From TrEMBL:
Organism: Streptomyces aureoversilis
Pfam families: DUF5753 (PF19054), HTH_31 (PF13560)
Domain HTH cro/C1-type per the UniProt entry, residue ranges: 22-75
SUPFAM superfamilies given in the database record: lambda repressor-like DNA-binding domains
Protein name listed in UniProt: Scr1 family TA system antitoxin-like transcriptional regulator
Length: 275
């Protein structure tokens, strides 16, 4: 006996609407989940969970669905809204501002910033920080993190500058293979038209930002905001004087950090060092 499809609730959120519309378009096209899975290269179970809003859609799925169903940018537009709903409310304003920023400057003391994490690196972090979470919950978190990275492949991406403490480069997150893939990805971003990555070596010593992570954002109207993050908390700073002080601290670190070319050589040396 065929299992009765789970009732959908498209009025609950954009993510639920995405799933309900996916099922509606699929059924209208006379496609089974198995057939759609073959076409878009995702598993039947993954698509089923997206239809019932149990999983956030992965970043590359909306475009594939629009192509399959001939819906223009319908699913892409829904996804742009739905992808924010998996993040806690306290981070939503930060993410909204980040999406509007034309310049993003980041300093990371301990881990690679989320905007440039690889899938394996992100998964390893979520597993260790959420030891009781189910595999499905972990995959949901990974998909949410990767969804933020669409900013960097947009038609007009922001200019992104990242300063990484040497500890970020040397700590082997996820094991040798995962960490190597992450370092390879960072090298590719070291010096491009829209991205720079610099390493702050241990030899610099103490500095004003060493206790956490800082994100500085310049919006289209030249408004500047900052986001300061520690282990379990994050604070959005919009007061101009305080933001200016954080900017000064960041600029000093940029002056002391290795140049992009030397940073690339440094990262490669860490990759090639015997484990």
């Amino acid at each position: 006996m065929a299992r009765t499809p789970r009732k959908l609730t498209p009025d609950r959120s954009a993510r639920h609407l995405f799933g309900a519309d996916l099922r509606h378009r699929r059924e209208a096209a006379g496609m089974t989940l198995e057939k759609l899975a073959e076409v878009v290269c995702y598993s039947r179970s993954h698509l089923a969970r997206i239809e019932t809003a149990e999983h956030v859609p992965p970043p590359d799925l909306p475009a594939r669905l629009d192509e399959v169903f001939g819906t223009g940018e319908h699913f892409a537009r829904l996804y742009a809204i739905a992808r924010h709903e998996v993040h806690p409310d306290k981070y939503r304003r930060f993410m909204e501002l980040q999406a509007q920023a034309r310049v993003i400057d980041e300093y990371a003391a301990h881990v690679v910033p989320g905007l440039v994490q690889t899938e394996g690196y992100a998964r390893a972090l979520f597993r260790v920080s959420n030891p009781k979470a189910s595999p499905d919950a972990i995959e949901e978190m990974v998909a949410a993190r990767l969804s933020r990275q669409v900013l960097l492949t947009a038609e007009a991406p922001p200019d992104l500058s990242i300063i990484l403490d040497e500890a970020v480069i040397r700590r082997p997150v996820g094991g040798p293979a995962v960490m190597r893939a992450q370092l390879v990805s960072l090298v590719e971003l070291v010096d491009t038209a829209t991205t720079t990555v610099q390493v702050l070596p241990f030899e610099h010593g103490e500095h004003a930002l060493m206790s956490g992570a800082l994100t500085l954002m310049t919006l289209d109207d030249d408004t500047n905001v900052a986001y300061v993050e520690s282990i379990a908390t994050g604070s959005l700073i919009e007061d101009p004087e305080t933001v200016s002080a954080r900017r000064r601290s960041y600029d000093l670190l940029r002056a002391y950090a290795l140049s992009p070319s030397k940073s690339a050589a440094f990262i490669r040396a860490v990759m090639e060092a015997p484990s």
